[in-house]
Every structure is written in C-alpha cells, then in structure tokens.
C-alpha cells in the first residue's frame, strides 16, 4: 500500500490470538497410520524413545510388588511347613506313577491351599499395579509429552480397585470356560484381552468388555501377533528362569528363596517385554478405531 493512501475503513484489522503462542502437543506419528505390525513396532519405538526412563521406573515398581509377593508367599509356605524338596519329590513320584493313592491329597494339603490363597490375593494387587500404568502412558503418548512417574504412582490405588475387580471377573470366566471345555476358555481369554487396557484407560468394566469384544473381532491379526509374541517371550522365561529355579530349589529352603529371586529377575525382563508389546498393540488399535470414526 502507498504511504499516502488512507486505510480501508472496511478492512478487518488483524487480531492476535494469544492461544497461538501456546505450544501445541507434538502429534505422535502420522494421523493416518494403518493398524498393522509395522505400526505396532513404530509405537513401541516411540514409547521407548520418549518414555524409557519412566517406563522402566514404573515397571520397576511393578516388579518390586511381584518380588514382594514371591518372597512373602515363599517364606509363608516355609513357615507353614511346606518342604520344597519333598513337594518336588512327590511331584516326580506322581508323574512317574510310583506314588501311593493318597500322594495327591498329601501334596495338596492345608499348607498348599494357604500358600495358593495368599498367592491369588496378592496377585490381585499385582494386577492392579500393572493396570494403573495404562492410563498415564496412553495420555502422555497421545499428547506427545513426557511421562511423570508420579502420574503412575497416583493411579495405583485406582488401578488396584479397578484392575483387581476386572481380574476377578476374568479369572472366573476363564476358569469356567476351561472347566466346561478348553476352547470356550481360550475364546474368553482372547476376547477379553483388550479389556485390560480399556479398564486401565478408565472405562467401566462392562464397557471395557463390550468395547474389547468389538476390538477383538476387528483386529484378529494384530491380536494373534500379540499372543504369539507373548507366548514366545514366556517360553524364553520358562526355559531360562525355570531351569535356574530348579537348580536352586534342589539345595533346600534357602535355595528355594534364591530361586524365587532368580525367577523374579527373568520374569521382570520378559514381563516388561510383554507389557511393552501389549501396550503398543493396544495404542495402535485405539488409534485405528479413532481414525475410523473420524476423530
């Protein structure tokens, strides 16, 4: 415009939007990524790249609960008179057919059931701590920001309440399905697989079951890869951790405690891998579902 030209009285003056100065959250990846195995790998890489320290800290807390459970149940069973060496020998005799008719009853006596009861009870707490990580990780990943360990710690109480209740529902449904026939139990386990993540996201139990069922129907290939990867990691744990555990258990009661620590170490490493693959898969599926709805 010429310096001598008067301004246009009908021209709308430029305005400054103060919100433009606020840095928008960094978008995570492409907004149109397909839900496939490559995308899952990308999401896992993003989780590790941006949140490795916090994820390891959160998983360390989760693993500490597991170690506490293992030590409490082990020391408790020894205090109740359960002899690991005798139980191992009894199991070998039963499997070889050399045990008497009352061997199974002797093996599964009051001490054994007290041990199992404590294991299941503390297992609910362990599951709740694990579920508590899904919500904070999801929010930090979607918003493209750093994840604070206090976000995870702040969700542990809620995670125990919600995760333990859902774990109870899952355990009952899965057990009934296995008892009635193996295939229904496996089907229950498959279709309820996404619901663990949805409960951690903040959905109600019944909403999680309903939404998880729909996800399981639409993303069979991804969940099949998730299950295969998890089975592979668990197989590694069973081979390495199980072999070392048996070696230590053969040395007596102190060796039984050491075997629990040995098993915990390998289980923590493998468990973190399973958790990372599971979380990456669920985030990929959720992103695909949101894109299909035009969000």
Q: What letter string, H or E per element, gives the SSE order? A: HHHHHHHHHHHH
What helical percentage do the residues reach?
Answer: over 70%
Shape: globular
Class by helix and strand content?
A: mainly alpha
Low-confidence stretches: 8-30
Q: For the CA atoms, what is the radius of gyration?
A: 25 Å
Number of helical segments with 4 or more residues: 12
- The share of residues in extended strands comes to under 5%
> What is the CA–CA distance across the termini?
43 Å
* Overall tally of structural domains: 1
| Mean pLDDT over the residues | 74
Can you summarize the main beta sheet? none
How many strands? Answer: 0
Organism: Persicimonas caeni
Protein name: Glycerophosphoryl diester phosphodiesterase membrane domain-containing protein
Transmembrane segments: 64-82, 112-135, 166-199, 219-240, 261-285
Keywords: Membrane, Transmembrane, Transmembrane helix
């Amino acid at each position: 415009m010429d310096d001598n030209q008067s301004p246009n009285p009908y021209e709308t003056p430029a305005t400054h939007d103060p919100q433009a100065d606020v840095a928008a959250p960094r978008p995570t990846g492409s907004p149109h990524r397909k839900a496939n195995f490559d995308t899952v790998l990308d999401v896992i890489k993003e989780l590790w790249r941006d949140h490795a320290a916090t994820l390891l800290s959160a998983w360390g807390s989760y693993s500490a609960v597991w170690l506490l459970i293992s030590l409490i149940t082990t020391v408790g069973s020894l205090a109740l008179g359960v002899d690991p060496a005798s139980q191992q020998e009894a199991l070998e005799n039963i499997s070889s057919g050399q045990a008497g008719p009352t061997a199974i009853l002797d093996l599964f006596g009051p001490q054994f059931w007290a041990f199992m009861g404590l294991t299941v009870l503390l297992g609910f707490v362990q599951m709740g701590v694990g579920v508590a990580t899904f919500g904070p990780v999801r929010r930090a990943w979607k918003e493209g920001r750093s994840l604070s360990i206090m976000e995870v710690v702040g969700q542990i109480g809620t995670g125990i309440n919600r995760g333990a209740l859902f774990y109870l529902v899952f355990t009952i449904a899965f057990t009934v399905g296995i008892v009635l026939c193996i295939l229904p139990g496996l089907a229950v386990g498959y279709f309820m697989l996404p619901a663990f993540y949805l409960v951690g996201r903040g959905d109600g139990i019944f909403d999680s079951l309903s939404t998880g069922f729909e996800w399981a129907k639409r993303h069979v290939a991804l969940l099949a890869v998730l299950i295969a990867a998890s089975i592979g990691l668990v197989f590694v744990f069973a081979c390495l951790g199980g072999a070392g555990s048996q070696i230590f258990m053969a040395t007596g009661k102190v060796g039984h405690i050491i075997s629990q620590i040995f098993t915990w170490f390998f289980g923590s490493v493998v468990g973190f891998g399973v958790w990372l693959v599971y979380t990456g898969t669920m985030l990929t599926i959720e992103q695909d579902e949101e894109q299909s709805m035009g969000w």
